[in-house]
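Quick one: structure tokens for this chain, please?
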Amino acid sequence: MTRSPPLRVNNDEPANWPQGVARHVLDRVDSTNAEAFRLAPSLSGPAWIFAHRQEAGRGRRGRAWTDPPGNFAATLALRPEGGPADAARLSFVAALSVHDALRDLCGPSLNVALKWPNDVLLNGGKLSGILLESSGAAGQVATLAIGIGINLAAAPDPAQVEPTATRPVSLLGETGLEVTPEDVLNALACQFDAWHRQLRTFGFAPIRNAWMARAAKLGETIVARTGATETTGRFDGIDDTGALILTGPRGRHVIPAADIYFSGS
């Protein structure tokens, strides 16, 4: 079956759009990450791919990502500097950017926090997910796709997510605030550009510190699960690679990849 091409709408850049960053606005697409890889050979620099409707979105570990009308779906495609570890740190830049863009649009009292490794919480529920995918060879990342979904208007039915998953929430449902996906795109692009400049200029340390200042459950006991392995300990932050640091009865654990669960989840 031949895939219908995405329908492009207005790609005009707003006045405050980051310089040197392309903007592709689609009426609909299967997946903004998939479209990012299709466009990658023709891109001369970073590009945001935004869709009003994403029909086959996905999250981490191949999980489906529900994207009803009014929610936000976009991907930033770029050629990152350095190797895979450097590319992976951009997930923290993305999380900071989502957090701060929402605060810019909704006000500083918005109760948003960051959950390791790549979720954004609102009032303790999952508001946003971030998915990094890459292509390349010989240990190098040729293209990185940073996919971001935000439940602006609606959240999935809790019965549709895993029983132990953080409850899904929407911005409208939790706060009554209506924010357009286009406004989020503009704010997010500006925030990512600013945080990415910080990373390139000063390294990961200020990103790490800023992320921990916004982290959920820092200093509290959490559970990290990797496959059949489960580690419980005090959440002491992240190290200079972005790995999770837990301190438990058997000492300090540095965990590069896991799903984490809070008490009662």
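The chain has two domains: 22-213, 221-261.
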